[in-house]
Automatic annotation (TrEMBL):
Any Pfam family hit: ABC_tran
GO MF terms held by the record: ATP binding
InterPro entries named in the record: AAA+_ATPase, ABC_transporter-like_ATP-bd, ABC_Transporter_VariousFunc, P-loop_NTPase
Keyword match Transmembrane helix: no
Protein source organism: Schleiferilactobacillus harbinensis
Domain of life of the organism encoding this protein: Bacteria
Protein name per UniProt: ABC transporter ATP-binding protein
Keyword Oxidoreductase belongs to the record: no
Keywords assigned: ATP-binding, Nucleotide-binding, Transport
Annotated ABC transporter domain residues: 1-222
C-alpha cells in the first residue's frame, strides 16, 4: 500500500458458479470519494462485499490504512417494523467505540428524520437516510456504500452528496460507493472505477477517466462526454426488430 492510499485492492478475485470477479485492483486516496459504475450484474456489489469481507474472496488482498476500520451500507437492512429509530440506535451505537452522538443528531436534523418514528412509519428514502446517519456517525475512515442514493429524491440526494463531501473534507476519510445515478459521479466523485463483466475496465481520477475514453472514442480533447455516453458507447445493445415476434 502506498502512503497516499487509504484503501488498496489488489487482484481481487471471487468465483461464483456462473460469474467471476477477476483480478480487480484499484486504490483510494484519503480525503477522496470514489464512484463505482457498471451495468447490472457487472460485479460492483461483489467487489464491495469482498472488501467488507461479507463474502470470502478466492484471491487478492485488501489493505485499509490504520486505524483499520470501515463502515458499510450494503443493501437494505431489515429492521423490526415496530421498533422506534431511537431504540435501534441505542442498541447499534454500543457496537462503536467511536460513536459520535452529536454528529448523529446533526445528520438526523439535516435529513429531516424524526427518531421517535417507528420503522414501519418510514418511507424507503427515509430508511436509507437513517441508515446513512448511523453509518456515518462513528468516524470510520472508509465508508463502503452500495447504491446509497438509489430511491432518493433529488433534494435529499443533494443533501446526501453534501454530507459525503463534508465527511471526506478533513483529508482523513474516504468513501467508496456504487451508483447507477451518473450525476452523482459528476457532482461528487474524485475518482471512478468502471466494472465491466467482472473486471476493472478503467479506474482513474475523474478528469483522467473522461480523457481516457475521449481518446478511446477518437474525440477531441474538450469534446463533451458524460458518464452515460461512456457507458452507452461501451455497453449499448440495439433491438433487432426482425427478431421480435409480430
Ligand atoms: N451469492 C451469489 N451466488 C452466486 N452468484 C452470485 C451471488 N451473488 C452475486 N452473484 C452473481 O455475481 C454477478 C455480479 O453480481 P453483483 O451483485 O456483484 O452485480 P452488480 O454490478 O452489483 O449489479 P447491480 O447493478 O444489478 O446491483 C451476477 O451474475 C450475480 O448473479
Amino acid at each position: 500500500m502506498t502512503n497516499d492510499s487509504l484503501l488498496t485492492v489488489s487482484h481481487l478475485t471471487k468465483r461464483y458458479p456462473q460469474f467471476t470477479l477477476q483480478d480487480v485492483s484499484f486504490t483510494i486516496a484519503p480525503g477522496t470519494i470514489m464512484g463505482m459504475i457498471g451495468v447490472n450484474g457487472a460485479g460492483k456489489s461483489t467487489t464491495l462485499k469482498s472488501i467488507a469481507r461479507l463474502v470470502q474472496p478466492d484471491a487478492g488482498t485488501m489493505q485499509i490504512a490504520a486505524p483499520a476500520n470501515l463502515a458499510v451500507m450494503l443493501g437494505e437492512t431489515v429492521y423490526y417494523p415496530e421498533k422506534k429509530l431511537t431504540t435501534i440506535t441505542r442498541t447499534t451505537r454500543q457496537f462503536y467505540s467511536q460513536w459520535d452522538e452529536e454528529q448523529y443528531r446533526y445528520y438526523l436534523h439535516f435529513f429531516d428524520l424524526d427518531d421517535q418514528k417507528k420503522v414501519k412509519e418510514l418511507s424507503t428514502g427515509m430508511l436509507i437516510k437513517y441508515q446513512l446517519a448511523v453509518t456515518m456517525s462513528h468516524h470510520a475512515p472508509l465508508l463502503i456504500l452500495d447504491e446509497p442514493t438509489s430511491g432518493i429524491d433529488p433534494v435529499s440526494r443533494d443533501a446526501i452528496r453534501q454530507v459525503f463531501r463534508h465527511y471526506v473534507a478533513d483529508g482523513q476519510h474516504s468513501i467508496l460507493f456504487s451508483t447507477h445515478i451518473t450525476t452523482d459521479l459528476e457532482a461528487i466523485a474524485d475518482s471512478i472505477t468502471y466494472i465491466h463483466a467482472g473486471a476493472v475496465l478503467y479506474s482513474a481520477a475523474k478528469p483522467d477517466f473522461i480523457d481516457h475514453f475521449r481518446r478511446q472514442f477518437g474525440l477531441s480533447v474538450n469534446a463533451p462526454l458524460t458518464f452515460d455516453d461512456i457507458m452507452l458507447t461501451i455497453e449499448r445493445k440495439t433491438i433487432d426488430d426482425s427478431a421480435i415476434p409480430a
